[in-house]
Amino acid sequence: MQLQVKQLGRLQQAIIGAPEAAEVVLAPQQLETAVAECAARFESVAAFTASLAKQGLSEPGLRSALYDELLCEAILDKVTADLPPLPRQQAYEYYLTHPQQFSRSRLWYLKQILITVNNDYAENSQEVAYRRICQVRELTDSQDFAELALRYSECPSAMEQGLLGWCEEDKLFPQIAAVLPLLQIGEVSAPIETELGFHLVQYNEMKPAKIASFHEAWPLLVQRHNERAKKYLQKQWLSRLLMPEAVLT
Q1: Ranges for the PpiC domain (predicted)?
Q2: Model's pTM, two decimal places?
């Protein structure tokens, strides 16, 4: 760990000392925002200060470390400011030969109630879990699904009243995906068994499968190109920057 920290420090100092860094200036607000974001992860200022102390840091030390980090990021951004544009014809050929990357299956806006099965415990055996999910299913005829999910579901989504949000069909358990087309909007399924246990599912909206047009895919293709080009150019620049140091050592 100490070696990694030392190597990171040497890399940062090399970047900051590069000729390209001469014209890079950080706005004071950038540093203040970064410090505030760090502090916001803690429940209080005291907890923030205690965490810094535990890591052998003070707030000035943190500011200095964040400043170097932000400055390095800004320098690397400057180095790759003039990215080569993505040729549209090249992008179109990629789009045509990789259709799976621009298509998706149906989307379902789902809620669920899950009763898990763990045969190591009598209270979570398959038989008991099935009995419990059937009891909850009966309650859905007269009670709100969201309230029942909050009360009975053993899925983390219970805290969101059972809401899973938009779910892509081919990423769902196949047992659930097979049932959804048979349901009406708002209808609660019968218990569905998967490797996790027993589910009750309800959907409120469905979006059909779709293949994005090239026009729709173009912004994503440009983004991917820019990310790859930026990473490549930064890697090449760093290699040239560190080459004299590598020769000397």
Answers
A1: 105-205
A2: 0.60
